[in-house]
Design goal:
Elements (H helix, E strand, L loop, with lengths): L3 E6 L5 H7 L3 E5 L8 H12 L5 E5 L15 H18 L3 E4 L2 H4 L7 H18 L6 E4 L13 H11 L4 E6 H7 L4 H5 L4 E6 L14 H10 L4 E5 L6 H16 L7
Parallel strand pairs: 1-2, 1-8, 2-3, 3-4, 4-5, 5-6, 6-7, 7-8
Protein name: Sugar phosphate isomerase/epimerase
Pfam family, one: AP_endonuc_2
GO molecular function, one term: isomerase activity
Length: 262
């Protein structure tokens, strides 16, 4: 069996195009399901359930105005959202859900970082429990400091995952954020048992294969970590129909494999 499955972070309207290009799956924004609007959600759900290519992953867990850190957290709104998210993810059949959501998790000025961390730990525990029986895992996404002032490295995300210690909580490594933060690739190997998902891009956060990111070091580190599973391109695309097939060819050539069922 091949080690990797390759996908692209994109809107559901690109699902057919991604299938035609030969991708294994699509990764969509959970926020785009409009979970808090029952009417809009009911309209959108069939697009994901009946997608021509599997929606195996979701990112952008929370809409930007739904705060999960700070004094303005609406616990009941968060609880309802997480419950609806778990149900939708199960219906769609996604197996990995990314918690990036920099705007939602940013620690506001004047709020103690220790309190922020406690709120995030409680949230992770809540999501972990909500995901029981769904077949999905949540992965914590480290973001660079321009996007978030909390959880900026793989090792930091792993520390939180270890503290929660829930089988449904794992960690994502994003090549772009790692490069922005200068995080050593050794962290992939050091934290290998926690790795559940990978995001990639290239110089300037453009399509993989268009820049100078050190893939010749990243790929061996990922292999040394024993990682098998999904790898999603998450980047800015200027000409999708031109760039995406070329990037997929680059990904298959560089990582050497595809169509993983892992």
């Amino acid at each position: 069996m091949d080690m990797y499955a390759f996908g692209w972070c994109s809107g559901i309207e690109r699902a057919e195009a991604l299938k035609q290009m030969g991708f294994d799956y699509i990764e969509c924004a959970l926020a785009s399901l409009n979970l808090e609007n029952d009417g809009e959600f009911a309209e959108k759900l069939p697009l994901y359930v009946n997608s021509p290519i599997p929606v195996r992953a979701f990112n952008i867990f929370f809409p930007g105005d739904l705060k999960v850190v700070g004094p303005d957290v609406d616990d009941e709104r968060v609880r309802r959202y997480v419950h609806k998210a778990a149900k939708a993810i199960h219906q769609i059949g996604a197996e990995t859900v990314v918690l990036g959501s920099g705007r939602s998790r940013n620690c506001p000025e004047g709020w103690e970082m220790s309190r922020a961390e406690e709120q995030i730990l409680q949230l992770l525990e809540q999501i972990g429990e909500a995901f029981v029986g769904t077949g999905a895992k949540l992965v914590i996404e480290p973001l660079n400091k321009k996007e978030s002032n909390i959880i900026n490295s793989v090792s930091e995300a792993v520390r939180l995952a270890q503290m929660v210690n829930h089988p449904n909580i794992r960690v994502l490594a994003d090549f772009y954020h790692m490069d922005e933060e200068g995080e050593p690739l050794q962290t992939l190997i050091d934290n290998k048992i926690w790795l559940q998902h990978i995001h990639i891009a290239d110089t300037g956060r453009f399509s993989p294969g268009t820049g100078q990111y050190p893939y010749e070091q990243f790929v061996p580190a990922l292999r040394a970590a024993g990682y098998e599973g999904m790898i999603s391109a998450e980047c800015t695309v200027r000409e999708p129909d031109v760039e995406m097939p070329v990037s997929l060819a680059f990904m298959r050539r560089t990582f050497g494999g595809g169509s993983a069922e892992a």
